[in-house]
Amino acid sequence: MPRRIVVISAGLSTPSSTRLLADRLATATTDALVRQGEQSTVEVVELREHARDLADHLVAGFPNAALRPVLESVEQADAVIAVTPIFSASYSGLFKTFADVLDREAVTGTPVLVAATGGTARHSLALEHAMRPLFAYLRAAVVPTAVFAAPEDWGASDTTTSLEDRVERAAGELAAAVAARPLRARTDEFDDVPDFTALLKG
């Protein structure tokens, strides 16, 4: 059974460097899993497409029909790749709203890779003082390497510090964490529904 990887991208534009980084991390993770003999599927969640759904959830207290399957996908994921743009030295408001509506047990113990993009390398510290503590609060298993991409990182060729090297290292850590975990049990919400014929028989 393939491992489920859910990618959360909080980019606001189309195309966005946030989504580009998310895609690179997802590809590198699936490749790393293949090398460990594991197959995987990838589901990308573009939070910008659910901005109104998230606001509705905050007001109503429950997810609408469009947002519910997104939250369920995160809860059932074998791994999560979370990527956000950095604004005002922290994750975006859109990303924080998504974190606010997640069930507090949604990613407990789930391997998570955190990553971010920003206009300057000075924002890279936000991964350690904002992103990592957020997922620690949610009790996720965040991998050691976090990936930040500033404008100058795209196309960098230094083999010791290039973005590609950091992506590969982080993806390898995530793949190893996933492969070390037992397969998550797949549940069906209708498993406990009694057979209709049996009900008629009393």
Q: Would you kindly provide a written description of the structure presented here, covering whatever features stand out?
A:
It is a single chain. The mean pLDDT is 90. This protein has a single domain (3-201), classed as Flavodoxin domain (Rossmann fold), CATH 3.40.50. 40% of the residues lie in helices and 18% in strands. It has helices spanning 17-35, 51-60, 68-75, 93-101, 126-137, 163-179, 196-201; strands at residues 3-9, 40-46, 79-87, 90-91, 111-117, 141-142, 147-149. The protein starts with a strand and ends with a helix. Strands 1, 2, 3, 4, 5, 6 and 7 form a seven-stranded mixed sheet that branches. It is globular and about 70 Å long. Helix 1 (17-35) packs across helix 6 (163-179). It is an alpha/beta fold and 202 residues long. Residues 4-154 form the NADPH-dependent FMN reductase-like domain.
Summarize the structure.
The protein has 202 residues and is of the alpha/beta class.
Number of strands: 7
- Tell the overall outline: globular
Structural class estimated from helices and strands? alpha/beta
Beta-strand fraction estimate: 15-25%
Largest sheet: 7 strands, mixed
Low-confidence stretches: none
The arrangement of helices and strands along the chain is EHEHHEEHEHEEHH
Fourth-tier CATH superfamily name: Flavodoxin domain
The overall pLDDT, averaged over residues, is 90
Q: Briefly note the CATH topology name.
A: Rossmann fold
Radius of gyration based on Cα positions: 18 Å
CATH architecture: 3-Layer(aba) Sandwich
Helical residue percent band: 40-55%
Tally of helical runs: 7
Distance between the termini: 38 Å
